Amino acid sequence: MATLEIHDLHVSVETENGPREILRGVDLTVKQGETHAIMGPNGSGKSTLAYSLAGHPKYTVTSGTVTLDGEDVLAMTVDERARAGVFLAMQYPVEVPGVSVSNFLRTSATAIRGEAPKLRTWVKEVKGAMERLSIDPAFAERNVNEGFSGGEKKRHEILQLELLKPRIAILDETDSGLDVDALRVVSEGVNRVAESGEVGTLLITHYTRILRYIKPDHVHVFANGRIAESGGPELADKLENEGYEAYVKGGATA
Ligand code: ADP
Ligand code: MG
Ligand code: MG
């Protein structure tokens, strides 16, 4: 069972006024087959956590450790992280001019598996995954992220998740504008990979509504750059009713 372990992670971001500490001691363990939801108010550092795990150059780890089965993730390049089985949905948020979805997926799969997937089986795999996600076949020939709507970006994300079969998936639901349709696609995809038992998922979200479709095993409240409280699905219900007020700066548990 693959295990991602984050221990006492401190991360700073470079600003005009010098470095600013955003993550202040994150502790979290995600095992293959588990679904964790990280929820918290805007600006609490949720995306910073995702970017840090992705190895984004703007974020500097000042102390703490991140390991995957004991291997130092922080010492790995972005590509090495992907090969080790850590999937970060926002790893390629940008447009990739002239690269079709279909080519992009095959190149990614080749990099991760260490050999090019056999064309015949690969075409079948892609077709099946696209059908499950109700994606129009023409989508495969479009250029990555070029003119993608929020919903199409999410579908592409989940398509990657299903085809690349990572051991640990980190999904940052940065797009608060997800419509119900996109929400359903994301949820079904996440539930499908969760049911496979092969993927550990870290679902980062501000809104509780996605948790009507996805039942996480663990819910963590993120506030002021660290996990303020952890619990089961009932914690999401509490957040839906009471909001994050108790956790923000000056609040009882902040
Ligand atoms: P969340 O995803 O929980 O809304 P973020 O991780 O995006 O929070 O941001 C946490 C804090 O760090 C915010 O105050 C934000 O302004 C700041 N921050 C994040 N990234 C940068 C950056 N690249 N430059 C300056 N400040 C940043
Ligand atoms: Mg730990
Ligand atoms: Mg965010």
Automatic annotation (TrEMBL):
It holds the Pfam family ABC_tran. CDD domains: ABC_FeS_Assembly. One of its GO terms (molecular function) is ATP binding. InterPro entries: AAA+_ATPase, ABC_transporter-like_ATP-bd, FeS-cluster_ATPase_SufC, P-loop_NTPase. Residues 4-249 form the ABC transporter domain. Keywords: ATP-binding, Nucleotide-binding. The keyword Nucleotide-binding applies. Belongs to the ABC transporter superfamily. Ycf16 family. PANTHER family: ABC TRANSPORTER I FAMILY MEMBER 6, CHLOROPLASTIC. This is ABC transporter ATP-binding protein. The lineage of its organism: Bacteria, Bacillati, Actinomycetota, Actinomycetes, Kitasatosporales.
